[in-house]
Amino acid sequence: MLLFSKRLKEIRKKVGLTQEELGARVGVTKVSVCCYEKGTRTPTLETLLDIADVLHVDFTYLLGTENYVVAEDDVDYGMNIAKDEIELIRELRKHPDLYHLLVSEPERVIKLIEQKIR
Questions:
Q1: Which of 30, 50, 73, 93 is the most exposed place for a label (fewest CB within 10 A)?
Q2: Residue 54: which of 74, 24, 32, 29 has the closest Cα?
Q3: pTM of the full predicted structure?
Q4: d(Cα 68, Cα 59) in Å, to the nearest integer?
């Protein structure tokens, strides 16, 4: 829910609401909204829908799943993917060696990255 946290904070600020005001409108505390924005707490589905309604956005946008992508090799397969994820893929493609390694051995590369950032 990393994208949710980021988008919630961005949209809340864009519409000019404080955490306390948003919380009051959706029936949660300021602390809850703060935790949603930090990614340490996840709202219930009902609260998520209320937040989307108050902020005048589709809940799928808050979740970061507004683009539907169909795999090139299988027309029956599709998935929702966020614009941020698409941008990450575009950036990775600028580094062919790294991109190839990530595509060919994703689990291994993720483990190496996790070890490096700890």
A1: 73
A2: 24
A3: 0.58
A4: 15
